[in-house]
Amino acid sequence: VALKEVLRSPTLEICLSVCFAWTLMNQIWDQDKEIKMYDLAVGMLFALEAILMIAAFGFEEYWKVAQNKLDFMIMLATVGSTIYALIPNEYEDPHVIRCISSCRLLRLLRLLNWVPGFSTILSALMRVLPEAFEMAQVLFCAMFIFSVVGTQLFGGLINTDPKSVQSAELAASDFGKAGYYANNFNDVPSGFVVLFELLIVNNWFVIVDGFTVTSGRWAWIYFVAFWLFGVVISLNIVVSFIIDAFVNQFGQDDGEIEEHDTVSHLPA
Fold first, then answer.
1. N or C: which end of the chain has fewer CB within 10 A?
2. Where are the alpha helices (DSSP H) in 10-58?
3. What is the three-class DSSP state of 35?
4. How many CA atoms does the CB half-sphere of 43 hold within 13 Å?
5. 53 vs 73: CA distance, rounded Å
6. Would you say 103 and 74 are in contact if contact means Cβ atoms under 8 Å apart?
7. What's the pTM?
8. How far is CA 227 from CA 139, 143, 151, in A?
9. Mean pLDDT lowest for which of 19-33, 140-154, 158-172, 251-265?
């Protein structure tokens, strides 16, 4: 029982996480190509923790936790690669063990379990994922259609050819001064990149300026249409999904807390 309490204590979790983070920082600062003792020591510490967890809780109970599975896999990879790197062979490369050891930083995510409200946030995000995925499919189809249309309307107009009719005017615009020539509709993938930038409203006015210079003032109609559908409608729907999921999750958690308090105050 005492061993279980120690293994479950947040103090031990914090100490091990700090140890693994310190090891990684040493790997970054130390440019020596030889395997250091702390590489082996931390790997053995990782293995010792897994052995004690299995001894205390049993392998079946230990394996039920997803984080334990990840720790166990990283431990096997780390110890195995350390032994392999220490054995003289033609592929001896300590960078392999150090790259694998860097995966231990994922353990720091365990500390989030001690952050108040983190489970609520995670539950809300998991709840909203199905709706967000469905909305992402709709948005992808819309972006594909807009990209194809944009390729037909603006394909080949944005280029660095000095013989182009609008070359001088395009170079003098905010679009040309910013060197945004890669943002074009010369092909569908490039169109997707431009639409994604418009979706996050990244220098929207600069991008539109380049197309109005080469295509005329009417070009803004296309970009405003995508902004209305992609930003005003689609992204706001996603945001509403997220807010609704968080409100419901917080309400559910508050209800469970109130119910627990009520039960605990009932007479035996």
1. C
2. 10-29, 37-57
3. coil
4. 23
5. 14
6. yes
7. 0.60
8. 12, 11, 17
9. 251-265
State both tokens at 109. 């995510």
pLDDT at 264 over 60: no
What's the CA gap between 176 and 116, in Å, rounded?
Answer: 49
**DSSP code, position 157:** T
Burial of 25 (0-12, 13-18, 19+ CB in 10 A): exposed
Four-CA torsion 172, 174, 180, 185, nearest 10 degrees = -90
As a whole number of angstroms, the distance between CA 20 and CA 27 comes to 11
Q: 3-state DSSP call for residue 49?
A: helix
| E strands, the chain, in order | none
Q: How many percent of the chain have pLDDT more than 70?
A: 73
